[in-house]
Structures are given as structure tokens and as C-alpha cells.
Amino acid sequence: MTPVARAATCAALLFLASCGNGEEADQSDAADSQTPSVTVRVAEAEEQDVQSWVYAQGTARAIQREFLTFESAGRVEYVNPDVRVGQRVRKGTLLAYQQPDRPRAALANAQAGLAGARGELAVAEANLDEANANLELALETFQRYEILLAQNSASQQEYDEAEARLAQARAAREKAAAQLQAVRAEVGAARARIDEAEVTVSESRIVAPIDGVLARLNLEQGRYFTPQQVQTQSEAGALSTIPALVIDPSTYEITVELPSYQFSNVAVGRTVLIRSSETGPNASVPTGARPNVNGRSSPGLPVSDYQIRGVVYSVTPALDPQRRTFEVVIRTTTGEDTLQDGEFVTVWIEGIRSDSAVTIPLEALLYEDDEPYVFVVDRETMRASREEVTVGLRASTAVAVTEGVAAGAQVVVRGTSELQDGDRVRLEGERETAASQRTDPDGGDEGAGER
């Protein structure tokens, strides 16, 4: 074959190969255009302040809870018929009392004993006064005879007799003083017996010690009561067996246990959002309240929707050695009237705050093998790319992203169930762009019929 013929043959082969590659590319583009787009909804990643919340659950209890009982056994003689459970009572209101005969008799005996002791006290005081007077006279007499003896105007016998009378007067005075002290002690003992008897009388009566609400009344008139009936092993047992319970519902206290790693996220004075678990199904764990990868959580409702609020009252610095948790005490500040004593509640404690963080909606965050990722849409190519992200603080409706997504990125918030990396997408409410429709359904170029 001549060189000219060989060159012509190579040129022909190259032409045919180029035509074949072009057809394959056109077929690939046509097949790609035939792939249906995934309809998605997107949202823009934006910068905003993020407030984290620490999730916990506990029981709300009135700060003032007075468990009232009789201290001794006896028949319940009276239960106030004008007082009902749930009714407000004032301090000093009589709720019930036991049969009073025995304690009142003991009080009367103690009062009689005090009266007798006071009579003896008066006699002892008079005896001491008399002894003091006799001692003063004996001392003056002795001093006079002492002078007379020195002047040889009195005999030694008269001096000795005066000295003996002085010693007797001193002994009598000491005896009278000792008797007075003993009688005073008896008076004190009599007063103590009266106090004891009065306590016994008061213990046979149940009186409201504070202004509050009668929360429990487990008494029946005419029944015999013994202190052993009260079950103190558990709160439930105590509530069902204690004769009466008065609470002040103006302020509640909630004690929660938090894991040790949350210690740096809470502080005294921080705001607390409180949700009653009895306000409806799923109330204890609203949507969005699950912990994120950092162990923090967020309320499932807007912060303004929480009518019951409180503050962190105290944080214990010591860990439970077995459970590795620490105790946080919360006290309510608003909305207490919707709580009940003993009610189980869910709380979110104000945690760390991050200013001007890149955030995405919670709906955009996906997980695979506990690794977070999102789909980002390129508005020019209308394709979705999977991007691994690092998440930070979680707000009520958004989560901060520290790596993987920049502000302004279009993240998919709906339609991710069928979406894969590199898929073509179509936004809700929009038609496919001309760029994604370069060919007609038959695979031919647009306008081919015009050419």
C-alpha cells in the first residue's frame, strides 16, 4: 500500500472512531436525561445564634410539704367537717384530734404539781430570808463580844457562845439556800412536766402549720390510730398512710440527675423550661427533643410556648459514686398553678450559647452509622451532593454545623428518602431547567425536526 493510501485509510478509521464516540456520548447524555429527577425541598444554611439545652426529667414537689401525724396511739375523736382535700387552709386551722382525756389529765396533774412547787418555793425563800437575818445578827453579836473580850469587859465563855451562835447561823443560812435551790429545781421540773403534757396534748391534735392546701387527709372519725400505721419506706406509702399533708403550691422544686459530662453545661441561675408530662400523649418527649451527637438536646417547641419556667437553684459538685451523676435542683418562677405536687415533668436547662454559627434545619440532618451528613443542591447543575458534616449545638429548630457546609448552601430538607449522591433534583414548585432537558424523549436533539 502506498503511503498516500495508508494515510487515507488511517484518516478514514479516525473519522469513523470519532463518529462512534460522539454517538456514545449522545446516547449517554440521552440516557442521563431520561433519568427522572428527585423532587426535593431545600433551605439555606444561615448564620444565627444557637442556644443549647440540657434535657432531663424529674418530679415536681412543693417546696413546703408538711406531713402531719399523731405522735401517740389513740382514737380519732374529731375530723374537721369544714375542711376538704384540695381546699385552702390557714395556719392554725384545726384538722383533727384524738380522744383528749388522758393527755388533758396529765396536763392537769402537771399544773397541780407546779402549783405545789411554787408554794414550797415561797416557804424556802422565806426561810432563806430568816436565815440571812439570823446570820447578820449573830455576826454583829460576835463582833461586839470580840471587842469586849479585848477590853476585858466580857468573859471567854460569852465570846465562845457568840462564836458558836455565828457558826450555827451560817450553817442555817447554807441549809436554807440549799433548800431554796432544791425547790427551784422542783419548780423547773414541774414546768417541764407541764410543757411535756402540753406537747402531748398538742400531739393529739393536727393543726395546719402553714398557709396552704390540704393535699391528703387519711383519717376517719372514730377509728383507732397508731403511729406504726404510717409507712415511711417510700413516698407513695407515706402519702397513702399519713394522717394529713398540707402543701404550699406557690413554688415547686424539681430535682434531676445529670451525667457527669454535663457538669460544665449548667450553672446556678440558668433559665429552665418545664413541660408537664400529663398534658397529653408524647408530652414528656416532644418532637426534636432527642439528644444529638454531643449529648445535648433541644426543646421540641418554640421557647415562647413554655408557660412553666424556673431557674437552676443549686448544682451539687459531688458525683454519685455508682451512677456517675450529679444533682441539680430547679425551682419554678412562673406557671406553677398548672403543676401538681408529685407530677412527673420534662425540663430543658439553658446550656452553652454559640453566636453567629452556621446552622441548618434539623430536618436536613441525616445519619448513617451514627455519622451525620446532609445533601447540598448545586443550583447550576441541579444535582445533589452528599456532604459529611460536623455538628455543634442544637437549637429548637436548627443545628449548628462547624464543618462541611458553608453559609448560603442549599441543603435538602425534604425528599431525602430516595436521594443519592449525584442525583438530579427538581425543586418543589419548579419545572426542570432547560439544562436538564437538552434532549427530547426520543433522544434526539431539540429542534432536530427543524433542521
UniProtKB/TrEMBL annotation:
Q: Does the keyword Transcription regulation apply?
A: no
- UniProt key word Iron: no
Q: Which Gene3D superfamilies match?
A: 2.40.30.170, 2.40.420.20, 2.40.50.100, Helix hairpin bin (1.10.287.470)
- Listed GO CC annotations: efflux pump complex
What sections of the sequence does the record tag as coiled-coil? 107-200
Q: Where is the composition biased (Acidic residues)?
A: 442-451
Ranges where the YknX-like C-terminal permuted SH3-like domain occurs: 357-426
Record's signal peptide:
1-22
Outline the extent of the Multidrug resistance protein MdtA-like alpha-helical hairpin domain. 121-182
- Give the Basic and acidic residues compositional bias ranges: 421-433
Q: Which UniProt keywords apply?
A: Coiled coil, Signal
Q: Tell me the domain of life.
A: Bacteria
Q: Which SUPFAM superfamilies match?
A: HlyD-like secretion proteins (SSF111369)
Region spans: Disordered = 278-300, 421-451
The entry lists its GO molecular-function terms as:
efflux transmembrane transporter activity
Q: Which family does it belong to?
A: Belongs to the membrane fusion protein (MFP) (TC 8.A.1) family.
User: What protein is this chain from?
Assistant: RND efflux pump membrane fusion protein barrel-sandwich domain-containing protein
**What organism is the protein native to?**
Pacificimonas flava
